Amino acid sequence: MPDDWDPEVYKAAPGRTPDPEPRTSLPNPVTIVQSLYNLSVDAPVTFFREWMERQHAKNRYYYYHRNYRRVPDLTECLEDDYLCFFEAEAQWKRDKKVDEEIVKIIQERMGACQQREGHSFVQNCAQEIKQFEQVAKAYEDRYADLGAAGNARKCLMKQKQRMIAERKAQAQAEA
Amino acid sequence: MAAMSLLLRAAAALGARKVPIHAAGGGRVSLLDRSILSSGIFAPVRHGSHGKKMFPITATKFYDKRFLSLLRFYILLPGIPIAIFITYVNIFIGEAELAEIPEGYIPDHWEYYKHPITRWISRYLLDSPEKEYEKMLALIDIETNKSDLRMKEKEARRLMRARGDGPWYQFETPDKNLIDYSSKATPDN
To answer: Is a pLDDT exceeding 50 seen at residue B20?
Structure first.
């Protein structure tokens, strides 16, 4: 089963303590329903799952995440060196996937904060919102508008165009 | 049944007339009690539950039913053994657990996958991703060399044709002494 989330990042909302002096003598129907569910669904499923885990524990084996080496960038490739181009492209695609996951994680954090705070998210979540805006702006600068057939070469050309535009704006600002 | 015969007797007592068996209108006669038969009193009985028997005429469902039946059969024929096998693997063998790569250990290429069947396929049926990468690089290298040589050949041809000092583009011309200059003797031709 996947790990639980980091409690520092996704803080639990402050809970409401139950009333220590209930003024009714009627039983709480919520507890009845909970105990029914526990008996009929939770207990058998947990029992089966734990039996299965015991079977798994008899012969355990592991899997690892890949560690890719860094290869020279597209900027460091010589002309007509198609092998270098290929390796740089593969590295760029991997880096793009990593960046997409980073954006998703920051977005999820912001969403969790908003869900947690309710209507007061505007002031309480300011840091998460700022972080998300920064990350999304960076992603947009790097990868947006490349299209579905975007590759490392087109990305490099986009950065070149951006740098040219920046320098032009700077020159105009000085002049 | 007893109540029915009592009812018939009561109807008879109230003056029901003799009705023949094939009564007009198709009403059926209940031939229940021998005593009633012998007394000769019987009334037509119309059972309210059955109604008139009909034969509905609809389009045939034979081909559709046969098709669906065969479809289910041929899907489940390998499907059920595969499902049982996969359930067995998931329950008794189980998936791998994620771990950090230990120091100085290089995992085999199938040890990067979680599910045991994926690991088996990667180990015994497929080439490792490193090998696939190297195969792609080899193809690119071959094509690079081909394109390189072709460009060089084209450049050499162009230069030899332009300069005329190479072994290619040497055309055989006929001997100078065979040219007939007799038409040049007169100026106005």
So the answer is: no
Q: What is the pTM of this model?
A: 0.71
By the 8 A CB rule, do B28 and B57 touch? Answer: no
- pLDDT given at position B188: 85
Yes or no: say if B78 and B59 are a contact pair by the CB < 8 Å rule.
no
From the list B93, B94, B140, which residue is nearest A82 (CB)?
B140
How far apart CA A133 and CA B38 sit, in angstroms, is 104
Phi first, then psi: give them for residue B98, nearest 5 degrees: -75, 135
A82-117 vs B129-163: helix crossing angle, rounded to 10: 140
ipTM score of complex? 0.79
Asked if the Cβ–Cβ distance from B98 to A64 is below 8 Å, we say yes
Of the candidates A84, A100, A119, A171, the residue with the CA atom closest to the CA atom of residue B140: A84
CB contact under 8 A, B140 and A86: yes
Q: Which two tokens stand for residue A77?
A: 């490739």
Cα(A108)–Cα(A114) distance, integer angstroms: 10
Residues in B whose CB is inside 8 Å of some CB of A read: 91-101, 107, 111-114, 119, 133, 136-137, 140-141, 143-144, 148
- DSSP state letters, B59-92: ---HHHHHHHHHHHHHHHHHHHHHHHHHHHIIII
Where on the phi/psi map is residue A141: left (φ > 0), alpha (ψ -120 to 50), or beta? alpha
Model confidence at A38: pLDDT above 80:
yes
Residue B47: name the closest of B27, B66, B62 by CA. Answer: B27
Calculate the alpha carbon distances from A9 to A57, A112, A118 in Å: 32, 10, 17
- What tens digit of pLDDT does each residue of B177-188 get? 998 888 888 888
Six token digits for residue A18:
């139950």
Q: Tens of pLDDT along A12-32?
A: 777 777 777 778 888 888 989
CA dihedral for A20, A24, A26, A32, sign (positive or negative): negative
What's the pLDDT score for residue B150? 97
The predicted pLDDT at position A15 comes to 77
Cβ B44 vs Cβ B28: under 8 Å: yes
- Mean pLDDT across A94-119: 94
